Amino acid sequence: MKIGFNRLVFAGLIFSLMGDVMLIYAGADVYFFLYGLVSFLLAHILYSSAFFRDFKNNPRESKYYGHLMLFVMGVYSLSYYSWIRDYLNNFRIPVLAYIFVISIMAILAAYRYRRVNLLSFRLICFGAIFFVISDSALAFRKFVEPYSFAGILIMSTYMLAQYLITVGTIERKVEIGETSKLMQEVE
After folding, report:
1. Is the sign of the CA dihedral 83, 85, 88, 94 positive or negative?
2. What is the tens place of the pLDDT at every residue in 69-113?
3. How far apart are CA 98 and CA 113, in angstroms?
4. pLDDT, tens digit, 9 for 90 and up, residues 45-73
5. How many distinct structural domains can be found in the chain?
6. How far is 183 from 186, CA to CA, in rounded Å?
7. DSSP letters of the chain?
8. What global pTM score does this model have?
9. Of the candidates 121, 41, 109, 96, the residue with the CA atom closest to the CA atom of residue 70
10. Smallest Cα–Cα separation from 19: which of 42, 33, 48, 39?
11. Which residues pair with 181 in a beta bridge?
């Protein structure tokens, strides 16, 4: 049974909500932070699955933005992890896994270019970028050093990310690109 794009994104929103609830109690018990991390990890896997569905619709179409995001996220993720690694203690492996999954989510968001309408592509791609910013700010505050504007930065970028992904899902229209049109003409 195939699960549709909208349902995958909706399930991702539900797991994000569960992650939010867990993070509220993270100060009381370190395991709540870990449970929140797992909830968000599952949310990003669900988002990634949805975004991959769009890529699969027309894998021959332009991969320019996907390749660009692959490079950017590769450099950023390795650099950021190397920078905060010494502060992570027992969270090295979970944070590394999380960075990998959120990077995949951002990369797959960028691979949606010319597979969906431009508005949906832009909204979801920027939503993925804001998610990376939010989670990077959260990791810095949690593991490296608390800072005065952390709450505002984390929550504003997080809310913007969820909003953009949600609206991008609502606005989504699958495109039949030039490559697909040519293939249909040949058949």
Report:
1. positive
2. 999 999 999 999 999 999 999 889 999 999 999 999 999 999 999
3. 24
4. 999 999 999 998 888 898 999 999 999 99
5. 1
6. 5
7. -PPPHHHHHHHHHHHHHHHHHHHHTTTT-HHHHHHHHHHHHHHHHHHHHHHHHHHHH-TTS--HHHHHHHHHHHHHHHHHHHHHGGG-GGGHHHHHHHHHHHHHHHHHHHTTTTTB-HHHHHHHHHHHHHHHHHHHHHHIIIII---TTHHHHHHHHHHHHHHHHHHHHHT--B---HHHHHHHHH-
8. 0.89
9. 109
10. 39
11. none
Tokens representing residue 112 in the block: 């949606």
Question: Which two three-digit tokens encode residue 132?
Answer: 């990376």
- Residues of the domain holding 27: 5-186
Largest distance between two CA atoms of the chain: 63
